Amino acid sequence: MPKFQSVTVIIVNYNTAKYITGCIDSLFKQRGVELQVIVVDNASHDNSVVLLQQRYAERIHLIQSSENLGFGRANNLAATHATGDFLLLLNPDALLTDSEAIIELIAFMTQSQGYGMVGPAIYEPRKHKVVKPRMSYPLQKQLKATYKLNGLPGSIAWLLGACLLTKTSIYRQIDGFDPDFFLYGEDVDICLRIRLAGYALGYADDVRIEHVAGASEVGAVSYEKWLRKKRGYYLFCKKHYAREDILRIVKTVVRGIKTNLFFLRLAGRLKLKKESVIKERTDRLMATLTAANELIE
Fold first, then answer.
1. Is residue 258 scored above 60 in pLDDT?
2. Of 176, 141, 175, which is closest to residue 161 (Cα–Cα)?
3. Would you tell me how many other CB atoms lie within 10 Å of the CB of residue 170?
């Protein structure tokens, strides 16, 4: 009989009871792989834990955290229990619609000795779009004094963290996710560190999954959600870009935000846009302004 590939799937759950069973059910339909499924529950306050215990019992390894560890730390915790040769880092609101998705990702990764991490094409039904890999890092085009991004392996800068496949040995080699990232930006960071370790990133566009996107943030206050996002990406900049570049970029960003806020408020007074649109854009700008100022403190 052919030897199945051993894969540890790590899912970090936070109040996503509505989606996680669909995700796990799609895992157990996968062919050609021997799965260990580890779910870390980040102190959810919905019925996630009871649902998982009742539905899957011993079929999954459920780790209940007494606090919200964030995405990266929770993945790192689960990885200490991993027994598979490969790690699949999967969001709870992702769905593997192809029963051979995992084995195809493994085949794609192992076809080249240079890949350190690969990801599939990610379709987001709510936005009717396919999320493709990014070919540059945040604000990279504005860099003048940062040289660590030069000469990196491959052409892909980073992959969306909703579904990432790597070898367990590589994940441990780079010490997994940086625990300083709570939510957002950690996928950009780990992809860069994979490349800094000498590996390229791969995009298996023939493998397609579905991703709801933002399920754990449903109901979150707009400003707080945007602040988490901006803090994550600016933390990436702080860790990897030269201070000279950061100071110059922040000054430009702050000037642009203040200008945009002026015209946005003017549009509000003149009733040129809906109040909901103005509020959402204002929250985003104010969150960006706060995170940018924090970056240079």
1. yes
2. 176
3. 17
Per-residue model confidence (pLDDT) at position 218? 57
Whether 35 contacts 9, CB under 8 Å: yes
pLDDT, tens digit (0-9, with 9 covering 90-100), for 222-236: 888 889 999 999 999
Q: What is the DSSP letter of 140?
A: G
Cβ atoms 74, 177 nearer than 8 A: no
For 259-285, write each residue's pLDDT tens digit: 999 988 888 887 777 888 888 889 989
Could you please report the per-residue DSSP string of 61-104?
EEEEESS---HHHHHHHHHTT--SSEEEEE-TTEE--STTHHHH
Question: What pTM value is reported for the model?
Answer: 0.91
* Residue count of the chain: 297
User: What SS3 state is found at 123?
Assistant: strand
Going by C-alpha positions, the residue among 197, 277, 276, 178 that lies closest to residue 236 is 178
Cα distance between residue 5 and residue 82, in whole Å? 14
Residue ranges matching CATH 3.90.550.10 in the chain? 5-217
Domain 5-217 has CATH 1.10.3720.10: no
